[in-house]
Amino acid sequence: MCLRRRPPGQLLVNTSTLPSDQTLNAACTAKRQQILDGAATLFLHNGYEGTSMSQVAREAGVSKGTLYNYFDCKAQLFSALIEAVAETKLRNVYERIHSDDLDCATTLQRVAEAMIRTLLQPDSMMLYRIIVAEARKFPLLADIFWQRAFGVSISTLADWIANRAARGELVVDDPVFAAEQFFMLCQTRIVQRHRFELPVDKSDAAIKTVARITSESFMKLNGAH
Amino acid sequence: MCLRRRPPGQLLVNTSTLPSDQTLNAACTAKRQQILDGAATLFLHNGYEGTSMSQVAREAGVSKGTLYNYFDCKAQLFSALIEAVAETKLRNVYERIHSDDLDCATTLQRVAEAMIRTLLQPDSMMLYRIIVAEARKFPLLADIFWQRAFGVSISTLADWIANRAARGELVVDDPVFAAEQFFMLCQTRIVQRHRFELPVDKSDAAIKTVARITSESFMKLNGAH
Amino acid sequence: MCLRRRPPGQLLVNTSTLPSDQTLNAACTAKRQQILDGAATLFLHNGYEGTSMSQVAREAGVSKGTLYNYFDCKAQLFSALIEAVAETKLRNVYERIHSDDLDCATTLQRVAEAMIRTLLQPDSMMLYRIIVAEARKFPLLADIFWQRAFGVSISTLADWIANRAARGELVVDDPVFAAEQFFMLCQTRIVQRHRFELPVDKSDAAIKTVARITSESFMKLNGAH
Amino acid sequence: MCLRRRPPGQLLVNTSTLPSDQTLNAACTAKRQQILDGAATLFLHNGYEGTSMSQVAREAGVSKGTLYNYFDCKAQLFSALIEAVAETKLRNVYERIHSDDLDCATTLQRVAEAMIRTLLQPDSMMLYRIIVAEARKFPLLADIFWQRAFGVSISTLADWIANRAARGELVVDDPVFAAEQFFMLCQTRIVQRHRFELPVDKSDAAIKTVARITSESFMKLNGAH
DNA sequence: GATGAATGAGCTTTCATTCAT
DNA sequence: TATGAATGAAAGCTCATTCAT
Q1: DSSP bridge partners of C223
Q2: Where are chain D's structural domains?
Q3: Which residue in chain C is spatially nearest to B2 when comparing CA positions?
Q4: Fewest CB atoms within 10 A around its CB: which of A128, A194, B153, D203?
Q5: CB within 8 A of D212, min separation 6: which ones?
Q6: DSSP string, A19-55
Q7: How far apart are CA C129 and CA C119, in angstroms?
Q8: What is the rounded CA–CA span in Å between residue D84 and residue D77?
């Protein structure tokens, strides 16, 4: 048995025991991916407790036995899934950051807009919900999520900020902290309220406005003047 | 065909049917409170799905039947609990705001510090996790939480900001948005990372530093000069 | 607000979704039959509400999980059982009708006797009790019971009556109504009283007497003279 | 404790222990009637298992404690109720029989019609369902029902038949059996089918037709010619 | 006598996991 | 390796009955 259903304390999933990518042959990987695809649909819709292994098996088109050939238990499947999903979600945000032939304010506004839109996507929103909800049970998960999603965004932006500071366009002591502030400011109003399922204007115009204010605020805080 | 346990759509709990603050007699209230206390311990530790009604009964020292005499179903108990908890959690934050004979920067720094400390408390942290996780299933919950916790903090701060702007100490177009930005900035680094269970310096000094930076940032954005 | 266990209205079990007589493989059918056998014992003894799924599982020698692998819910198991039982119960009655080289009165007396004996069997009696008791909750059940049991008997007898009328041995306007009257007359005294658990002579002789009177009555009502 | 919830064998309620009518003071009787009225509504709508003591208490406007002051257990309350209800239900049927200044056929047709209408009433129908369903568990109940309802009707009609036979209008060997046959014939088609919740024409015309056929049939079987 | 809060066994149903084929 | 039938613990919830007030 892998795990008790309702663990009294922490539910530790040692991700180091996951079959790592390099040692898997192709056929195995294909089936594994098939399972992960099915799992993604369900976990991101219904959460961890709301998804049953039978559902995953059906959705993925494999038997329950096969499921357990590839993943030792539900928690491990979940971990593997979040690992896979987190990686791809915020990619377009920091790709945006690299297109940096524009002035600071404009770039930041575009990044802010991309960030807001990404965070509002149903998948991302659900991912955030799940990670925050299950972070205590799956501490490694949050770590993975941070490293592959938020963390990457922050360090990418921090690098960009340091670069612009070097050029004299910004004046920044701690680029990482500044980047973190920037991402927090992005979440003002729309993202934050949407997380609480509160009614809020999520129109294009509203998003652009928050993005603009965020960019302007950042420039006020860290601009060269 | 057969009754589904997990409804596909929303699980609406009409909180207006909760025994409200009418004149419940003392005995009734005492037992009710006893149940809520037990429920708090468990729900705030293990989340909604992770807590069973049997556990709550045992923890509260009552029988399952008694549980259901006071609350129609698990969802309603949960709702009532969150309602009760949310109310008390952020109270000290906005009480801090009213002690306003100090200069802006100092007041804001104290508010930021109180906010950070509150959000870092295990209960608050768990409350945030649960609300975000279950907001889809319990839309009214998030609403309550917002109205009694975050919402109150924001509008209290917004009022203070408007007041200081009237005095000429701040220059602010949209006091509510400014307040929302302030609270987002409070969550930079420590709170945010703690939510993801990432290692982060949560020392007094670290908290004071983030509070100071937050206050300074706000003043840069909205100060009279 | 919360999910009610007992719906106020009808409990519809769409029997068309029951695994029908398709080509179920042998193993599946064997286990299914094993469950139905256990269910028959209990439901026919204790009725629908008086039988629990745990009891059925124990009686059938399977786990509760297995029960639910074969039947979606208690109502469906019950429906499937009644469907299976109803079919076999009255078969020997209408088989009796086909042996028709005898004169009318003798044939009818034999049919009446078979009918009375069948209706007095503990299983049939209990089946009648259950169907009548649960007809409101399971309208399709009564329908099935009628179509496979009483209905078949009536239409078989009605055909026989029409045939004899064509031969000039009977004079009948409405063969179906005549058949219905015949079956009601069969239930006079012994069957009726037994249904109410009243003391009544159920001896062979008594049965033969009622059968004879029934046959004679029918001939008086519909005989050629 | 009065009775186990799910009795393994028979559920005997010794009705001789019911507080008999003469020894009860007025106040007590009033409350008792109040309870029985509430119980009638529920038991006749939802059956024995489908009715809870809490519901009865609420419907009757008394506390559960009071319920148990007047009736030792659910089974006894149910017994007392059926006893009370059965008595009143078929009264109008045999009252019809006494108005006997008409010719046989007409009287019988009126009695048949009254009988059919009575049996089709929702209360009577439900009473029949309940008695038949619970007869095994409550053997005394069915006895009571027979003695106060069906039995009275039969013996009243049998007396009338004997009287008319003495007048030479009928030729009957066994008036009781003839009466039983008459009541069975009344149940042909409409009543029988309605018991199985099958669709059937329950119009005034249809009822009159069955009543007429029943009367004619009886006259054919037992008329003076 | 009347109340209704409290009890706890029992109900239907779900689901992670195993294992014979 | 893949299957899916089988398991059984545990879930949410009900209800006849008791008893302190």
Answers
A1: C170
A2: 25-72, 83-222
A3: C73
A4: D203
A5: D109, D112
A6: --GGG--HHHHHHHHHHHHHHHHHHHHHTTTT--HHH
A7: 11
A8: 11
Q: How many Å apart are CA C192 and CA D184, to the nearest integer?
A: 9
Burial status of residue C147 (CB atoms within 10 A of its CB: 0-12, 13-18, 19 or more): middle
Question: Given CB atoms, is A212 within the 8 Å cutoff of chain B?
Answer: no
Altogether, the residues listed in chain A come to a count of 225
- The CATH code belonging to domain B25-72 is 1.10.10.60
Who contacts A219 (Cβ-Cβ below 8 Å, separation ≥6)? A104, A105, A108
Return d(Cα C217, Cα C108) in angstroms, integer. Answer: 10
Q: What is the pLDDT along chain C (225 residues), one digit of tens a residue?
A: 442 333 333 444 544 333 433 334 444 588 899 999 999 999 998 999 999 999 999 999 999 999 999 999 999 999 999 888 887 776 666 666 776 678 899 999 999 999 999 999 988 898 899 888 888 888 888 888 888 778 888 998 999 999 999 999 999 999 999 999 999 999 999 999 999 888 999 999 999 999 999 999 999 999 987
Q: Counting every residue, how long is chain C?
A: 225
Q: Is B66 on the interface with A (CB under 8 A)?
A: no
Whether D213 has its CB under 8 Å from any CB of chain C: the answer is yes
Check whether D153 has a pLDDT greater than 60.
yes
The packing angle between helices D74-89 and D91-98, to 10°, is 20
Fold of A83-222: Tetracycline Repressor; domain 2 (1.10.357)
Kindly identify which residue of chain C lies nearest to residue B7, measuring between CA atoms: C3
Q: Which residues pair with A170 in a beta bridge?
A: A223
**Helix H or strand E encompassing D76:** helix D74-89
Determine how many CB atoms are found less than 10 A away from the CB of residue C32.
Answer: 18
Q: Please give the Cα distance from B128 to A50 (Å, whole number).
A: 19
**In A 55-84, which Cβ lie closer than 7 Å to strand F?**
62-66, 68-69
pLDDT at C22: 38
Q: Could you tell me which residues come within 8 angstroms of residue A141 by beta carbon, excluding any fewer than 6 positions away?
A: A13, A78, A79, A82, A83, A131, A134, A135
Protein-contacted positions of strand F (CB under 7 Å): 1-20
φ/ψ of C167, rounded to 5, equals -75, -10
Q: What contacts A207, CB < 8 A, 6 or more positions away?
A: A113, A116, A117, A120, A190
